[in-house]
Amino acid sequence: MTGPRIPIAPDGRLLFGGDYNPEQWPEEVWTEDVRLVKEAGVTSVTLGVFSWAKLEPRPGAREFGWLDRLMDLMHAHGIGVVLATPTSAPPPWLGRLHPETLPRDENGQTVWWGSRQQFAHSSSVYRRFAAAITEDLAQRYGHHPALRMWHINNEYCTFDYGDEAARAFRDWLRRRYRTLDAVNEAWGTAFWSQHVETWEDVIPPRRAQYMRNPTQVLDFRRFTSDALLECFVAERDIVRRHSPAHIPVTTNFMPFWTGQDAWTWARQEDVVSVDMYPDPRDPLGGQYNAMIGDMTRGQAGGAPWMVMEQAAGPVNWRGVNHPKPHGLNRLWSLQSVARGADAICYFQWRQSRQGAEKFHSGMVDHAGEEGRVFAEVKRIGAELALLEGEVAGTGVTADVAVLHDWESWWAGSQDGRPSTHVVYEDVVRTWHRGLWEAGLTADFAHPEHDLSGYRVVVVPQLYLLSDAAVDNLLAYARGGGSVVCGFFSGVADSDDRVRAGGMDARLRELFGIRTVHEWWPLDPGQTVDCGEFTGSLWSEELTAAPDAEVVAAYRGGELDGLPAVLRRGSARYLSTLPEPSALRTLLADVAAEAGVRPPLSGLPAGVEAVRRGDVLFLLHHGTGDVVVELPSDEGPLRDLLTGTEHSGSVPLGRYGVVALRAARGGDRAA
Ligand code: GLA
Questions:
Q1: Helix/strand/coil for 665
Q2: Which of 112, 276, 430, 461 is most buried, most CB within 10 Å of its CB?
Q3: pLDDT band of 225, cuts 50, 70, 90
Q4: C-alpha to C-alpha distances, 337 to 5, 288, 380, 387, nearest whole angstrom
Q5: Is 274 within the bounds of a domain?
Q6: pLDDT digit string (tens) for 145-159?
Q7: Catalytic residue (choose from 269, 309, 437, 608)
Q8: Given 56, 155, 407, 608, which residue is catalytic?
Q9: Dihedral over Cα of 217, 223, 229, 234: its sign
Q10: Residue numbers of the domain that contains 547
């Protein structure tokens, strides 16, 4: 566990609902909303996310009447409320009266009001106004019987390069390094005459003539994540002061987003929540959804987590915004439950008719209650009610950990590196795909987390590894764990300084690498022949230690005969990215050797099996009909969604899902 957790579903009921923006609608519509909310089995709505101007139309004014009526209305109908602080959308008057609350971009340009999230995180005026509205909101509703959870701000994501941020950045650096000498040392300012002589010389990495100092950029990213976290913590502490201890506090992460070190943030939350928007046209959208689930569960330390937002149909921020084909919303919702979510929520309840998101779907879209989207929403609501008694509060077992770290991502994604075609997110996703296709359930973990509970640790790419992380990995390997590590890992230390020899010496020893001579990144579309498979993106000129086994070698070209995959004991290093089927096979072999068994083997292509608590979920990501063979040693299994008992095999149609557990004497007949 990474921190104290408060159950999402203390009453055993999964949360099902969405962002409700009733201020966009006349009050007559609220009555219809209540009827439809109940029809859909919605258990909670999120209120107030962007309501600051409605609550405080003028500085210091308070207009709570409309929210009083809504809170009471929800309570009267047994609907819970996830109440948001409105601080991600300051009203225009705040920027007009206090321009220093508006962030500046890298070019020094003001980010104006007219959209949302135009707040300078380090502005003391912004923080004062945000705290004041939060205080009054919390005081008024902290004990309201409808309140289920606090939702702070929304998708914290602003960067600020302005003067107040510069001062806060200096303070942050003082805390980290204490002296300017230490800053100069860490940033390597001997390079290009960047020596900083006074603290005033230290600025955010604003627009510059050419490539900027990479450690300055790295530290600015660390600082930005921490500064935003301070805003969260300040509001969290206010709402906690005014609410009973069983009301959890969360803020919604964007999925796998670069701006926030979610490992650090998650430790400060009672519930970890995330927004999930796979592209319905992506043939691997289901794998992406699984990956975000696995990552969020990791951040929650294995505790149940929350889908704060997903789309019932199309979003409106891609080039082409495709609807979800019939059944896909249900499939991905149940997939999140299977991977540990205790809350399935949407952006948003009712599709807007005005504003920038009027073409973004809602649970009730423009077609209204007659629409296909609402019909599927009702089905999901009904099915969650069938599942909740069996799954709420339970965990997902994973024997494999995927290591991921924001600091490494930030450091490894900057200008001036060997290849701009190596995109960290894509590399991680490719490795997760290998595990997913091999049917292996994986948690995400931070490289300094305790890994002893896992049999296999996978490192897709950790360019930067702290000394503590290296120690951790070595201790894990010494304890008998299997490590599989991808290229361009262990290269830099915490200051983004390249380690002597091009890769940490102890890691080289672990993997049986004698010398790393040179990296040979590949062009887009270029592949290297590695014998039984081809590699892409990267290759390396390295030599093997005498006791290492060369599992695969490059054939032809400059690297002919040199190791592509190297192994020493149960540690393996891949100096290229194997094609997906080869990566899947390799990971399956490593897992099998380490005694890890998928929840169900021999699955047809596109079928995912995950075990949560006592329930085995089978999720079919394809549109044809398939038959899944069930384990012969288990008795009849009951599908909790239909009540049907299955023995021997179970058929799955287009986007089909079954939630199976051992049939019990007391089960009612289907
Ligand atoms: C984010 C935001 C929502 C909404 C959706 C649209 O997740 O939090 O307010 O803008 O995107 O997809």
A1: coil
A2: 461
A3: very high
A4: 18, 15, 11, 9
A5: yes
A6: 999 999 999 999 999
A7: 309
A8: 155
A9: negative
A10: 400-593
